[in-house]
Amino acid sequence: MINYHLTVSGRVQGVGFRWSTYQLAKEMGVTGYVENLANGDVAIVVQGPHETVRRFVQEVQAGVSPYARVDNVQIKPGNLVDFKDFSIKESW
């Protein structure tokens, strides 16, 4: 198992990015959450088997919503957490 914290910048708010990320996570069977940040970025915490999480990250980098534009994805390893599922967090 691996846990990554992603910060996605670009045109990623107001374009269905969180919902598309949620759908992708459900399809791939990973856990964690996605949330909008006040600065216009989107934060994702994703956890699951190494190869599955790496494929998830590749899909996010490619842009999970046809209306989004991903300019940059910062990736940091995180600690494993006891997530039950993947969710969309309401922010601020």
How are the SSEs ordered, and which strands pair?
Layout: E1 2-11, H1 17-28, E2 31-36, E3 42-48, H2 50-62, E4 69-77, E5 86-89
Parallel strand pairs: 2-5
Antiparallel strand pairs: 1-3, 1-4, 2-3
Helix pairs in contact: 1-2
Textual characterization of the structure:
With 92 residues, the chain is an alpha+beta fold. Helix content is 27%, strand content 39%. It is built from 2 helices and 5 strands; from the N terminus they run βαββαββ. The longest helix has 13 residues. The mean pLDDT is 95.
Features:
single chain, 92 residues, alpha+beta, 5 strands, globular
What is the residue-mean pLDDT, rounded to a whole number? 95
Shape: globular
Uncertain ranges: none
Assembly classification: single chain
Radius of gyration, in angstroms, nearest whole number: 12 Å
Quick structural summary:
With 92 residues, the chain is an alpha+beta fold. 27% of the residues lie in helices and 39% in strands.
